[in-house]
Write a structure and sequence with these properties.
about 20% strand; two-stranded parallel ribbon; Rossmann fold; alpha/beta
Length: about 220
């Protein structure tokens, strides 16, 4: 039976690649996007719900699908206010997980980050860790939490410091062996493909997936 998927964050790098993959994937009859801005030129297979994702509860009656892919994430440069940052990186994924539970959606996939730790003294890592904890507390049958390292790919927005960081990490990639494999740059295409493979090929269970494992799952 063909499925319906929900994507949060389809205007971002990984989310948009995921969207294009699901559009071409014949296992999906429909795709629902929840976002603040509309994406032009999409096929009829895609339905867009435009609004404030900080009030995602207002979409409850439309938040119905077989799977939810949460690719939401901001940066300190775009969102310097810590309160707003947490509303986005913690609030939106957790609300999406709660809606999934309430609407009997059994598969929830969310992108977190390497270093996520609810007990961390680093705000970014602490926020991601708290998000993971709250998502797992919803007890959704098939919960997949991805922890990628630096994400590579062609972004529309300019992130100069990130570009410098990626260039440096590319130079030292050969040094990342053994336990350091999780620190290798991972391309957004690999993350998106791993998400699709998780929901369609891999045995289902609650699981936290590190960066190197994400890469292997994408193959």
């Amino acid at each position: 039976m063909k499925k319906t998927a929900i994507i949060l964050g389809a205007t971002g790098l990984t989310g948009n690649i995921l969207l294009q993959k699901l559009i071409k994937d014949t296992r999906y009859k429909s795709i629902k996007l929840f976002s603040r801005s509309k994406i032009e030129g999409l096929p009829k297979k895609v339905t867009q719900f435009i609004g404030d994702l900080l009030s995602l509860e207002t979409f409850k009656n439309d938040f119905i699908a077989d799977e939810v892919y949460c690719c939401i994430g901001t940066t300190t440069k775009k969102t310097p206010d810590k309160s707003l940052y947490k509303q986005i990186d913690y609030g939106i994924p957790v609300t999406a997980a709660k809606l999934s539970k309430e609407n009997n959606i059994n598969t929830f996939v969310v992108i977190s980050a390497m270093g996520a730790n609810a007990k961390s003294n680093v705000f970014y890592n602490k926020t991601k860790g708290e998000m993971e904890k709250a998502v797992k507390q919803q007890n959704i049958k098939n919960t997949f939490i991805l922890r990628p390292s630096l994400i590579g790919g062609n972004r529309q927005e300019k992130r100069m410091l990130e570009k410098i960081g990626l260039a440096f990490f590319k130079l030292i990639q050969p040094l990342f062996i053994g336990k350091l494999k999780d620190y290798k740059i991972i391309d957004a295409k690999n993350i998106a493909q791993a998400m699709v493979n998780l929901t369609n090929k891999i045995e289902k269970s609650e699981v936290i997936i590190t960066s190197h494992h994400i890469y292997k799952l994408s193959k």
